[in-house]
Design goal:
The chain contains 8 helices and 16 strands. By secondary structure, it is an alpha/beta fold. Strands 7-6-5-10-11-15-12 form a 7-stranded mixed β-sheet. The chain has a 3-stranded mixed β-sheet with strand order 1-13-14, with helices on one face. It is globular and about 75 Å long.
C-alpha cells in the first residue's frame, strides 16, 4: 500500500471515507424508520385497548420503587424489598450485565442462562453461567424453569428473583410454567416482545392470553415501561408499544390498589439514549378512572 502513488492513495482514502459516510447515513435512516409508528385502522383501537387492559399495573401498598441496573438498556424499575442476599435467575443475558452487577452488589448469587453466547461479560460477585436457554422442557440446550430450580435445590424457597428477556420466546415458554415453578419468586422482571402482533394475529393473542393467565395466577404487574428500541402502533387516538418491560410481585405478599401514576416514572430511563422516551401516560387506567387510554 505504501508503494502506491500518493494520488491513488488519496483517492482510495476518499472512497473509504465516502463509504463510511454512506453507512452512517443508512444507519440513521434505518433508526428513523424504526421510530415511525405503525398505523392501524381506527377500528383496531379496541384491540390495542384490550391489550392495554391486560397489561395494566396495580400499585402495591407500602412499596418503594428503585432502579436496578444501568441508566439505559438493562436497567429495571423494581420494588425495593427482597432484593438482597438471595438467589437470582436471569434468562437471556446477551452483552448487557448492569442489572446482574447491581444484583450481585446486593449480595446475591446470580444464575445466568443464555444459549446464544459463549459466556457473558464479567460480573464482580458470585455468578454461575450455563449456556442453556429457557425451555418448555429440559433438552437440546434448553432447561425448564422447574429443572433450573431443582438443580440448585431452590424449588422450595420463597425469596428468589427472576429476570426473563428471551426476545419473544416468552410466549411459547410462559404457558408451560407450573404454579409451583412461579411461587418461589417474590419478584419478576420480564420483557414482553412483539406485542403489536396482537392486533391482527389471532393465534398470537391466544398465546399472550395463556401466558398472562399463568403469570396472573401467582403474580401481579406493578410497573410497565415501553422499550424505545421497539416500535409503536397507532389506531385512531390510541397508541401502543411493541416491547414492554414489566415488573411483577407475588400476590400473596402484597395488597394492591388501582395505580394512579402517569408513566414513565421518574426512575424510568429510555433504553436507547439517542431516542426520545416513550410516554405511556395513563396506561391501563381507563376502565378504572374513566380516563383516556395511552398517549
Amino acid at each position: 500500500m505504501s508503494d502506491l502513488d500518493p494520488q491513488i492513495l488519496s483517492l482510495l482514502q476518499q472512497l473509504i471515507d465516502r463509504q463510511a459516510m454512506m453507512e452512517h447515513r443508512i444507519a440513521l435512516l434505518l433508526d428513523h424508520a424504526q421510530q415511525v409508528p405503525r398505523f392501524f385502522s381506527p377500528g383496531d383501537a379496541k384491540h390495542l385497548l384490550d391489550l392495554e387492559s391486560l397489561l395494566a399495573p396495580a400499585t402495591p401498598l407500602g412499596a418503594t420503587f428503585v432502579r436496578v441496573g444501568g441508566d439505559n438498556d438493562g436497567g429495571y424499575v423494581m420494588v425495593d424489598r427482597g432484593l438482597n442476599d438471595t438467589s437470582v435467575y436471569n434468562f437471556g443475558i446477551g452483552a448487557e450485565v448492569t442489572w446482574d452487577q447491581a444484583m450481585a452488589d446486593r449480595g446475591n448469587t446470580i444464575y445466568q442462562f443464555d444459549h446464544t453466547i459463549e459466556e457473558p461479560p464479567p460480573v464482580v460477585g458470585k455468578t454461575v453461567f450455563q449456556r442453556l436457554g429457557l425451555g418448555a422442557i429440559t433438552a437440546d440446550g434448553f432447561v425448564s424453569l422447574g429443572d433450573a430450580l431443582r438443580r440448585n435445590g431452590d424449588q422450595d424457597r420463597d425469596d428468589l428473583v427472576l429476570n426473563i428477556d428471551i426476545e419473544g420466546g416468552e410466549w411459547d415458554i410462559l404457558p408451560t410454567f407450573d404454579e409451583k415453578d412461579m411461587t418461589p419468586f417474590s419478584q419478576i422482571v420480564i420483557e414482553l416482545h412483539n406485542l403489536l402482533a396482537w392486533v391482527h394475529d389471532i393465534d398470537f393473542r391466544d398465546r399472550v392470553m395463556c401466558s398472562l393467565d399463568v403469570l396472573n395466577q401467582t403474580h401481579q404487574i406493578v410497573h410497565v415501561h415501553a422499550n424505545n428500541y421497539g416500535g409503536r402502533g397507532v389506531a385512531g387516538s390510541v397508541m401502543s408499544y411493541d416491547v414492554l418491560e414489566a415488573t411483577l410481585l407475588r400476590r400473596a405478599d402484597w395488597k394492591f390498589v388501582a395505580h394512579r401514576d402517569t408513566l414513565p416514572l421518574a426512575l424510568d430511563r429510555p433504553n436507547a439514549p439517542h431516542r426520545d422516551e416513550f410516554s405511556l401516560g395513563n396506561w391501563g387506567r381507563g376502565e378504572l378512572l374513566g380516563a383516556s387510554h395511552g398517549t
